TrEMBL record, chain A:
Protein name: DUF6520 family protein
Classification via InterPro entries: DUF6520 (IPR045391)
Pfam families for the chain: DUF6520
Organism: Salinimicrobium profundisediminis
Signal peptide: 1-21
UniProt region (Disordered), positions on chain: 69-88
Biased composition (Basic and acidic residues): 77-88
Key words, A-Z: Signal
Automatic annotation (TrEMBL), chain B:
Pfam family, one: MauE
Localization: Membrane
Top-level taxon in the UniProt lineage: Bacteria
Transmembrane parts of this sequence: 14-36, 56-74, 86-104, 124-142
Taxonomic placement: Bacteria, Pseudomonadati, Bacteroidota, Flavobacteriia, Flavobacteriales
Protein topology in the membrane: Multi-pass membrane protein
InterPro entries the UniProt entry points to: Methylamine_util_MauE (IPR009908)
GO biological process, one term: methylamine metabolic process
GO CC field: membrane
Protein name, UniProt field: Methylamine utilisation protein MauE domain-containing protein
Keyword terms, alphabetized: Membrane, Transmembrane, Transmembrane helix
Species of origin: Salinimicrobium profundisediminis
Domain annotation Methylamine utilisation protein MauE: ranges: 13-139
Broad class of where this protein is predominantly found: membrane
Length: 88, 160
């Protein structure tokens, strides 16, 4: 009876701890981000190949919006490239 | 023969318990991750096709449902309901992903925590695997129920 309750309880505490622990696991080399007008960073779902260069990397979303590309959900991580606009 | 059946029943119960723990971890993790980054999650839902009109309600309802399902697993009497609810939730999510993959262009992922690195195809595969696990647990739970009622009937027959 005790195991029936405690094991799920431990599993739940473990999951809560894990979600806090992985909260900042957002800098993922396979993902790039953009910052919409809301200010909240959004994942592009993939890494954008921006080419070589020192110009700002720009992406056009399927809905037509054009945004700058970031390496991480952080305004200091603006991605550089050849400056050509990429389509998502 | 009876010992063999007992062993099989023991393994079935163990499998159902492990699957229950897996779903508790999965749903609690998903719900808490969404709640930690609630604002981000809600904004992402707003940009999703088909459901953006209900983004605020969904951002509240989804984690709440996931936490309720996690608590259902605590009581062995509610395990059936918990497995069925998990299966229904996963099927709804799968149908949504299929609709997104078929009718929408690429969109950002709304998943919390480490699962945010999943692509939509990865999600579909992961959810299908979870749905199969839920189905397996439902089937095993039915088997165990039948085994229990059968053995209790046998006990009654032996008693006199």
């Amino acid at each position: 009876m005790k195991t029936n309750f405690f094991l799920p309880m431990i599993a739940m505490i473990f999951a809560i701890g894990m979600s806090f622990a992985t909260e900042n696991v957002e800098i993922d080399p396979t993902q790039d981000y953009y910052q919409p007008s809301s200010g909240v960073f959004m994942s592009l779902g993939q890494e954008i190949d921006c080419g070589d260069g020192n110009k700002t990397c720009i992406v056009e979303l399927p809905n037509g919006e054009v945004h700058q590309v970031y390496d991480a959900p952080d305004p200091n991580t603006l991605k550089k490239g050849d400056g050509r606009k990429r389509q998502l | 023969m009876k010992k063999f059946e007992k062993n099989i029943a023991h393994w079935k119960k163990w499998t159902v318990d492990v699957i229950s723990l897996f779903f508790i971890i999965l749903f609690t993790y998903a719900a808490v991750s969404k709640l930690i980054e609630f604002e981000n999650f809600q904004t992402q839902l707003e940009q999703f096709p088909f459901i953006n009109d209900f983004s605020v309600s969904l951002a509240i309802i989804l984690p709440t449902v996931q936490i309720i399902i996690s608590f259902l697993y605590f009581k062995p009497n509610f395990r059936f309901q918990a497995f069925y609810s998990s299966l229904i939730l996963l099927i709804i999510f799968n149908l949504y992903i299929i609709a997104v993959l078929l009718f929408a262009e690429s969109i950002p992922c709304s998943c919390g925590g480490v699962i945010s690195t999943f692509s939509w195809n990865d999600h579909l595969i992961f959810n299908t695997g979870c749905s199969l696990l839920a189905l397996l647990a439902i089937a095993l739970s039915y088997d165990l129920k039948t085994y229990k009622s059968k053995s209790s009937t046998n006990v009654v027959e032996v008693k006199p």
